[in-house]
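Action item from last week, closing it out:
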Amino acid sequence: MPRGRMVSLIAFGLICAAGALAQSSSSLHGHVVDPSAAGVSGAAISAVNEETGFRRSTHSQPDGSYAVGSLAPGSYKLTVQKTGFRTVIRFHVGVGRELPARADFALSLGSMQETITVEGGTPSLLRQDDASVTTSLAQKEIENLPLNGRGVAGLLELAPGTNIVSATRGDAGQFVADGQRANTNYFTVDGISANNGVSAGGLPAQTTGGTLPVMSAFGSLDSLISLEAVEELRIQTSSTGSEFGRLPGASVAIASRSGTDEFHGSAAFSFRHERLAANDWFANRAAEPRVPLREENGSVTAGGPLRRGRTFFFLSFERMALRQPFAWMEPVPTAQARANAPAWAQAALGLFPAPNGPALGRGLATWNGRSSRPALLDAGSIRLDHALTDRVTLFGRYSDSPSRNEFGSTQVNRLDFRSWSATAGANWRLGPETVIDFRANQSATSAHSAWSGATGCELQPLAAQFLPGGDVPSCDFLVRFSIGGVGQLVSGREGDRRQRQFQLLQSVTWKHASHTVRAGADFRRIVPVRRESNASLSLIADSLSALANKGSLWVANRAAQNGLTEVREFSLWAHDNWQITPRVTVIAGLRWEYSPAPVPAGGVNFLNPSTETIQAETRPLWPRPYGHLAPRLGFAFRPDKSGRTVIRAGAGLYFNSSLSIATDVINNGPMNVDYFTSGRFGWVSGLLSFGFLPDLSLPRVVQWNVSVDHSLSATDSISVGYVGSAGKQL
């Protein structure tokens, strides 16, 4: 095990043992009124978790409002007592994570010994005190959904305004929300950032910085968290909250499941097979049989008490095995063209498959082929929750999800991916109205990519023709050979890409009268790393006929690229949910973003516009942004007492994260162009150099929304809304 990872795991264990860190929690609030609809002051309210037995208590304010903080998600029994009124008990009040739940009580005159019991309290489908555009799904709802593939990605499509972007080679796949770019979404698991800077999809890269969610080697979101381990998923496509609205795209918050006071477990298995599906249309047309198209997905969970009423555990494991079919139709050299090629190129041309289709002219013919490439994912996690006292709760979670994928026809790319994350935290209720929440995380994502054919490193002998000394390089040496009109051959290792993250978050919630104020700080340190074990060689021939003159080829011989950079981001935020009346809530917030530009160890190319020259300098890509203040404002209004209709509106300013450009400085940015030379026309030429423009600044986006929600019944509602945005300095 790498030393850095071992240190991280030891530190995580010590933190959990010491009980110093964070749990994602929520709250419950509402109003207690008498028969005249006036607020009842001093009513005693207790909330008891029906699964763990853990209890929280508080009293109503002079206006009848109350709030119970530091609640773990689950189903609660609420009891309201006040001298001169009948006691009211309400069962099965659902509380989710992050966003507060609401329960109002109307007391009737009588003795405290008289009890009114409400069975099966059904929560309202409408969020009555929130101005954002949000879709929330609880664990029981997720279990009942017929999702294709049983993955987290299937849940994202249920949110209005989202469109899935499929994964392809060089594109890890993502989704866009309300017209925003795909790399502006912000993913969190238990409140901790789950964005990373290493993309999969068949080509390892870090060109997106820390703006993609953790993905598997084949582009799915199953590495993020197993679906069976999800307690709640919330998608905000237009947010007015200053806590969640870090980036202008969608905010996807996932809460993991915890154990309960009873032992529970589950097991599931699903599969697909090519014999249960029709053949591909193009394969039928070419009279080709079906190739393996298979998916095997198995998962198990187990949870329960380690100490009843105090300590709980939850385990989750998922394995997904795929056989993905690919159909290929591409031009390849004919047998005659291979025989007529110069001796130095014949071995390389022999790596192309033999043509089996019509001739295309100029020494080319069509090749049709099919293959089925394997992929595998193992995703496991463990979560521990402990109630230290009735005021302090602790939690820790560790997840690890290695995956691999293969891609390609003649040369096959093997991509190994791994993501692990350790999160811990503490939740401390100072009093009935004040809660402190603290979280910490250490995580890493890495990718390793290598190309090979049937016999290993086939192109290494070809590279010896163009390297000084004529020595055959090792199999680690990366060789790319491209022929115009034909295609590309690749052999060797593409190197390693890695990103490490350390994050600290702290928030304070304070309830006073009709105000619920939340404030917090968020620090994130990200280190993108590029490691290559050997150099690389790229060869480009304009056509098959150009192979006759070896000196006419474009050649780029690049040394191994090894580097890292460091990005630090710091945020302060505060927002107030002000319930002006029982039917009107105003949400106002302010977020300060500090995103200094990364400074690499080596120089960065900058463009001098006045002289039109490129020069390497060691300085930040943009000035330190001290004035990035992002205000948010919204309201929610219930026009009638029934609460069946909610009108909401909001607007806010957002700044893009600096991570989208952070890794360009270790990828020869900004255009990631190799320097090619050629002996054509009797002289040596090179491609243009590129440099960053001076005085760059982070993009900013203004976003707004208006919507009307109406509850048709206890289980049905309808919503109509409009979301808009405008981007500047993109």
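Closing note: The radius of gyration is 30 Å.
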